[in-house]
Amino acid sequence: MLARLMEDVERWLAAAPVFLIALVVIVFAWMIGGWLSKRRALDRVGRHNPFLRDLARTTVRWAVTLIGVVIALEILNATAMVGAILGTAGVLGVALGFAFKDILENYLAGVLLSLRQPFSPRDLVEIDGNQGHVIALTSRATILMTLDGNHLRLPNALVFRSVALNYTRNPTRRFEFDVGIGVEEDLVHAQHVGIDALRTVPGVVDSPPPRALVMALGDSSVQMRYHGWVDQRSHDYLLVRSEAVRIVKEALDTENVDLPEPIYRLKLDGAGPTVSAVPGPAAPPSAAEAPSVERPKRPSGPPIDTRSTGDLTEQIDQEVRKRGGADLLDHNTPLE
């Protein structure tokens, strides 16, 4: 027993220099990988993308280290173990892939989004029905600030798969609203009145010009759709649209264009006569038959300031500063 133990010790001592050389090779490969990962050549790979730059550095370091491990196994005459190690790594990779599927999917989607740059910080976007201003893109999620001032984190995989609507990319944005016009009215006159009124709204641009379209015939009115274009760089979209609705309504009222309310005809089965068969004194006129009293028109108040207020701009800037540059979006990178 003791003799066999001594033989094992002697064998291990004889192999110690080889093990030491293999260990030195692995350590040397790790150091070489670290040195290569800090070269400026890799900075050009992700010049405007810190996430991609760090990924390239980590990949280079581990690739060189893996080469060192293979060389060390060759020195130890244990190349047969390489196949077993790779097989084990493959099985382990599949198991981890299923276990962390969502995390890996978001991570890879973050890499692709950082390369594509589909939007810029502070852009107003709508993704999968969620609307908000872009704050940052991280390795796992896209962070938005909704118009209510709330934080919204969307998984990168969802952002990558979904249809993204960017309201900021084109500075000019169209608004529209519908108005019911009386069926007896001159529709061409109503169109011109609305278009002339839209031209006076602060923030509505001259090109493309405002328009009015006859959309449909209703039961008691004709549906007229007015639309104009807003320069979002200087004016607020919602404020301009609100002011446009008000000014067009006042212009139609001034021109005595009928804006009828919905009219419904009710038919009651089995209802008795509405007038008594026995003659008698005339009933007093009902409220419906009484002559209507025209209310005096109130003077319009001062126009609403439609210039861009930037209600969320300061809050978004604060959030961007808090992140300290930890963002995969870059203004200097060409957008998709």
TrEMBL record:
Residues 176-258 form the Mechanosensitive ion channel MscS C-terminal domain. Residues 275-291 have a biased composition (Low complexity). The keyword Ion transport applies. GO terms for cellular component: plasma membrane. InterPro entries: LSM_dom_sf (IPR010920), MS_channel_C (IPR049278), MscS_archaea/bacteria_type (IPR045275), MscS_beta-dom_sf (IPR023408), MscS_channel_2nd (IPR006685), MscS_channel_C_sf (IPR011066), MscS_channel_TM-2 (IPR011014). The keyword Ribonucleoprotein does not apply. Pfam families: MS_channel_2nd, MS_channel_3rd. Residues 275-336 are annotated as: Disordered. It comes from the Bacteria. Keywords: Cell inner membrane, Cell membrane, Ion channel, Ion transport, Membrane, Transmembrane, Transmembrane helix, Transport. This is Small-conductance mechanosensitive channel.
